[in-house]
From TrEMBL:
Keyword Heme: no
Protein name: DUF4352 domain-containing protein
InterPro entries: DUF4352 (IPR029051), Immunoprotect_excell_Ig-like (IPR029050)
Keyword Transferase: no
Keyword list, A-Z: Signal
Domain of life: Archaea
Length: 196
């Protein structure tokens, strides 16, 4: 059984780098349009401050595979497993992967330490990123994922589900893989990625 957990994701790091790069380019372009050096510094600083205060980009968190991290009020989630298989069992049936593809199987676990029932934010999505390509939840696992997102975890309780992501065989053996969870909080997109 091939493990998908011994991986490294560069996408998260490059994303941060891209954001910083785009800001730098914007600042440089602004600088070239000014004729007075002192005015350039003042106006550039003001524009940068305004941009920071109005941004809607959220947090990107990278955690170790199997590690719990917060998602909402006292609700924590972890991604474990990471096996690869040609089949996926769900709802009493077994689905086979398409020719040239495999299922990446990931188990998501929720732990609620709050004094009230908690659930994942509506619209939470999961994906696998391999070799700079993103693969969403496989069709046979879509129902399980939606039920997991909408399920209510009792105070002090936990929940788990195993989800399949259909990926090309070459991606299944890639060393550049991460499990990703995306959700919205206070109007900003949040990204959690698990890797080793």
């Amino acid at each position: 059984m091939t493990s998908m957990t011994s991986v490294v994701l560069l996408a998260g790091c490059s994303s941060d780098g891209d954001d910083t790069g785009s800001t730098t380019i914007s600042t440089d372009q602004t600088t070239t349009t000014r004729t007075t050096e002192s005015e350039t510094t003042s106006e550039t600083t003001s524009e940068a401050t305004t941009s920071d205060s109005t941004t809607t980009s959220g947090e990107i968190r990278t955690v170790a595979f199997g590690e719990y991290t917060s998602v909402g009020n006292d609700l924590k989630i972890a991604a474990t497993g990471g096996d690869v298989s040609s089949s996926y069992k769900h709802d009493g049936t077994t689905s086979k992967s398409a020719d040239g593809k495999m299922f990446g199987l990931v188990t998501f676990k929720l732990n609620n330490s709050a004094e009230s029932s908690q659930s994942l934010p509506e619209g939470t999505t999961a994906s696998i990123r391999a070799d700079d390509e993103q693969y969403d939840v496989a069709e046979p696992a879509a129902k399980n994922w939606q039920q997991f997102v909408s399920s209510s975890v009792e105070p002090g309780g936990s929940a788990s589900t195993t989800i399949a992501f259909e990926v090309p065989k070459e991606a299944a053996s890639s060393v550049d893989v991460a499990v990703q969870l995306t959700y919205s909080e206070s109007g900003a997109d949040q990204l959690i990625q698990w890797r080793e």
